[in-house]
Amino acid sequence: MQIFDEKEKARIDIRTSKEMKDIFENAAALKGVSLTDFLVESAYKNALDIDRQLEDQSKLLLSLEARRRLFDSLNREFEPNNKLKLAAQRYKHRRRAYESC
Questions:
Q1: Cα dist. 73→6, 63, 66, 78, 84 in Å?
Q2: Where are the domains of the chain?
Q3: 15, 60, 84, 88: which one has the fewest Cβ atoms less than 10 Å from its Cβ?
Q4: What is the pLDDT of residues 15-64, one digit of tens each?
Q5: d(CA 17, CA 22)
């Protein structure tokens, strides 16, 4: 599986132990790909997983921030506007009329 554009190649050099290299080469051979393709694909998949985890974590943090803002607004002193005051008066008037029946 080739996951990069041939025109936009970049080089990464790594050093590892002989034992790790042997394991990588064996896994690449079992998968039927070159060592380079195996390492690039494995690193790329791992990087995407980490990126998704960070994205999920940031969504959770945003959710926690939204919850904090909601609770802050609910705990804040509230001053009713004129429409709400009029609605409350109408409700009280109708309730009194209903209770007197």
A1: 54, 15, 11, 9, 17
A2: 15-77
A3: 15
A4: 999 999 999 999 999 999 999 999 999 999 999 999 999 888 877 777 88
A5: 9
